[in-house]
Design goal:
Layout: E1 8-15, E2 18-25, E3 47-55, E4 73-76, H1 78-81, E5 90-95, E6 98-107, E7 115-119, H2 120-126, E8 134-140, E9 151-154, E10 163-168, E11 174-181, E12 187-188, E13 190-191, E14 197-199, E15 208-214, E16 219-225, E17 231-235, E18 244-253, H3 255-259, H4 271-275, H5 308-316, H6 322-325
Parallel strand pairs: 3-7, 4-6, 16-18
Antiparallel strand pairs: 1-2, 1-3, 3-8, 4-7, 5-6, 5-8, 9-10, 9-17, 10-14, 11-12, 11-15, 13-14, 15-16, 17-18
């Protein structure tokens, strides 16, 4: 399991007038198929839950992405992280102060379904840091705008005999990745919980064509990807538009940052968070009418409410226990 990152995240919550430190080491669980965690596409209904915040330990989360330039990201609990299947998706999260869009970037082993652990920057956009925990509603964004075109990073240690690649800026949840070397035929890759797609027997020396299919059936193909471990290779393909293809256009070395696994970062407890007692992780927050929404099954994440009428009707109903309502696929 040398390829897996085990970031030691330190998450701060207030309980009984004192800050409670919860440091959990992520356990590697390898997804056994190349498809999405569930057969059906995601639900289109918003859900209610609660949000906390944390300070990243190291340089990357379990999804193996570089930290977003805007510092807006989220860690999900095991059932919603879905062994890496949710990596790279975007959620709109609404709290007492407003709405923020965050990238699924990390896992939160101690979080139940509906408990979103946000970056401190994201949390402060929708809630008061002093509260430590806030009620929220959240939804998966379909075809979100992403910072740039699809990029590919070949993992250190990869060769013609063992293929491993991370895909970024794919916008929607991915269902499959296939790889062909030169004029050869495509081989199916399988996804790991640290968000690399592997072909254990290798895919050849390259250059590669990589066919990426999302959960809605849209396919994008990038070509000209070189066997150049430790670099981010940018392409000309934007996945959030119609199915398309293109070639690699630029590479950026990330070897130094990527070789180094994420390690524990010493975080200082927020004085304001410690000053105000709040519920512990095991206690669900009471959701106010301003952030309530109906709950339905998800696979593995949630999409937005489809109409204003549905959203208005949802606000009139009571909050539902997400842990009980959202099954593990």
């Amino acid at each position: 399991m040398s390829a897996h990152r085990n970031p030691f995240s330190i998450r701060w919550l207030a309980a009984g007038g004192a800050a409670v430190i919860a440091g959990i080491i992520g356990v590697a669980l390898v997804l056994q198929t190349g498809g999405s965690a569930c057969a059906a596409p995601p639900s289109t209904t918003a859900k209610t839950g609660k949000a906390t915040f944390y300070d990243l330990a190291g340089t990357s989360g379990n999804c193996s992405f570089e930290v977003p330039a805007d510092d807006l990201y989220v860690a999900l609990g095991p059932s919603q992280y879905s062994e890496g299947a949710s990596c790279g998706a975007y959620l709109d999260v609404t709290g007492p102060k407003g709405k923020v869009r965050v990238k699924v970037f990390d896992s939160c082993p101690e979080c139940a379904a509906g408990h979103l652990d946000l970056s401190r920057t994201a949390f402060k956009k929708i809630g008061a840091e002093i509260d430590g925990i806030i009620p929220i509603k959240y939804k998966l964004v379909t075809n979100p705008s992403v910072p740039g075109p699809i990029s590919v990073r070949i993992k250190e240690g990869a060769s013609q005999y063992w293929f491993a690649a991370r895909i970024d800026n794919h916008a929607n949840l991915l269902s499959s990745v296939k790889v062909a070397s030169g004029s050869g035929s495509f081989k199916s890759a399988h996804r790991t919980d640290f968000n690399y797609w592997l072909i254990d027997s290798g895919a050849g020396p390259g250059p590669f064509k990589i066919k990426i299919t999302d959960v809605y059936g849209k396919t994008s193909t990038v070509s000209g990807i070189k066997m150049n471990p430790g670099t981010v290779q940018k392409t000309s393909v934007r996945a959030s538009s119609a199915s398309s293809s293109g070639t690699a256009t630029k590479t950026e070395s990330t070897t130094a940052a990527s070789k180094k696994p994420a390690v524990a970062a010493k975080a200082s407890p927020s004085k304001s968070a410690a000053a105000k007692p709040s519920a512990s992780v095991s206690v669900s927050a009471t959701v106010s009418p301003s952030v309530s929404a109906s709950v339905t099954d998800a696979a593995p994440l949630l999409e937005s409410t489809t109409t204003a009428e549905e959203a208005e009707a949802a606000l009139a109903g009571p909050a539902v226990d997400l842990a009980a309502a959202e099954p593990r696929c």
